[in-house]
Specification:
The protein is α/β, with parallel strands linked by helices and 403 residues long. Helices cover 19% and strands 30% of the residues. The protein folds into four domains: 167 residues, Molybdenum Cofactor Biosythetic Enzyme, Chain A (3-Layer(aba) Sandwich); 39 residues, no CATH class; 86 residues, Molybdopterin biosynthesis moeA protein, domain 3; 73 residues, Beta-clip, CATH 2.40.340.10. The chain binds adenosine monophosphate (AMP) and magnesium ion.
């Protein structure tokens, strides 16, 4: 097991250790929010046929250019109808947006540029159509077989449009993992009782569950365990048997009742790392129980949320097969200082300036227990260990709580 790693080392070790969960096929309607685990190719040319982009008439441009202005109408071409055909070069068809161009026609004149005549239409004298106008050509967006979506993208509206338009009824996707949360601590009470003066309400379970849900993890089950090694072992065993990944909060520091690492090891978990050179979140523990990742997060509410967002969410995304998002950066609005040679995760409120630059306003917490100061923050900045002063204008990597 490795201890007291830097943030970069810990990050790398966790990513190297986390398994790739197998893909599965699901019905398209159930695929929202899942990670696509296949490429998607164009089923047909896009668009699949020459289609009108305006309501108007379809005609032969040469007829207009050689002076013809009045056109007899041979029919109405609607969307959803097989294309008709012009019987001769002097004829025209009415046509609707999205309808296939009747064969023989090569140009669309919008309805605003024509007037009705007996049995036909007349193109306004002051209007000069361009040859081929208002036709969205077959294959002009993408050819059949072209790569439209790469694996690793999370399925939202855009991906759903391309999947359904290209006939992918059963996409291969990453799993929606079952995640077990176990918060530990004798001092914790739930919503159903009134805390004594020496007790605190348990908030890490609901907080972590909410953050995970905002990141697309819906199957989250929360449990609580007291600081008792035997009961803790029971709860952990049960949580492991019902989940694909487990996240604990509390009990990973050096206190006499911090039983989590010992119990996990006794239950057969393989410890990978303990303690990261960071604040908050120094005591973080990570290991594997068989194929299941297990994260032991420090119990302080700021620490557990920061560690969840910084390490657990990226690891779960990777296990699902997601491409890692591009790192985001923001510029500090105010100077901050930090003496210890630890990476500092500083809660920030984000905004943009007039040039579109992302700004991070520091919201320092009193301690890792001061979660009241997290209200109205959007995430945190990652400030490197190798300096103590971060002036206004300093640009840092940031992590958003909910994205
Ligand atoms: P620990 O990491 O177990 O030493 O916990 C550190 C501190 O975090 C505790 O003293 C509690 O005040 C707080 N804490 C631990 N677990 C929770 C929780 N589930 N909800 C809210 N606060 C917690
Ligand atoms: Mg504790």
């Amino acid at each position: 097991m490795q201890t007291e790693l830097t943030v970069a080392q810990a990050d790398r070790l966790i990513r190297e250790t986390v398994p790739a969960w197998p893909a599965e096929q699901v019905a398209l309607h159930a695929a929202t929010g899942r990670v696509l685990r296949q490429n998607v190719l164009a089923e047909r040319d896009l668009p699949p046929y020459d289609r009108a982009t305006m309501d108007g008439i379809a005609l032969v441009w040469r007829s207009w250019s050689s002076g013809q202005r009045e056109f007899p109408l041979e029919g109405m071409q609607s969307a959803g109808q097989a294309p008709g055909a012009l019987s001769n070069a002097g004829a025209a068809w009415r046509i609707a947006t999205g309808a296939p161009i009747p064969s023989g026609a090569d140009t669309v004149v919008p309805v605003e540029r024509i007037g009705d005549t007996k049995g036909g239409v007349r193109i306004n004298d002051d209007y000069r159509p361009k040859r081929g106008q208002f036709i969205h050509r077959q294959g002009s967006d993408r050819r059949a077989g072209a790569l439209l979506l790469k694996e690793g993208q999370r399925i939202g509206g855009v991906e759903m449009a391309l999947l359904s338009a290209n006939g992918v009824a059963q996409p291969r996707v990453g799993p929606d993992p079952r995640i077990a949360l176990v918060s530990t601590g004798d001092e914790l009470v739930g919503l159903d009782s009134r805390p004594e003066s020496w007790q605190v309400r348990s908030s890490n379970g609901p907080a972590m569950s909410a953050l995970l849900k905002r990141h697309g993890f819906g199957k989250v089950a929360a449990a609580h365990a007291p600081d008792d090694p035997d009961v803790l072992a029971q709860r952990i065993r049960k949580a492991l048997s019902e989940s694909d990944a487990m996240i604990l909060s509390g009990g990973v520091s050096k206190g006499a009742k911090d039983y989590v690492p010992g119990v996990l090891t006794r239950l057969g978990a393989r410890p990978i790392l303990h303690r990261i050179r960071q604040r908050p979140g120094f005591p973080l523990w990570f290991g594997m129980h068989a194929e299941k990742p297990v994260f032991g997060l420090p119990g302080n509410p700021v620490s557990s949320l920061v560690c969840l967002r910084r390490y657990v969410v990226p690891a779960l995304n990777q296990a699902q097969g997601a491409q890692p998002p591009a790192p985001e950066h923001a510029t500090l609005t105010d100077e901050v200082g930090f003496r210890p040679s630890l990476t500092w995760f500083l809660p920030v409120r984000l905004s943009t300036d007039r040039d579109g630059r992302l700004l991070a306003q520091p919201r320092q917490t009193n301690t890792s227990g001061d979660f009241a100061s997290l209200a109205q923050t959007d995430g945190f900045a990652q400030l490197p260990a190798n300096r103590t002063r971060f002036p206004a204008g300093y640009t840092a990597r940031i992590f958003r709580w909910n994205a």
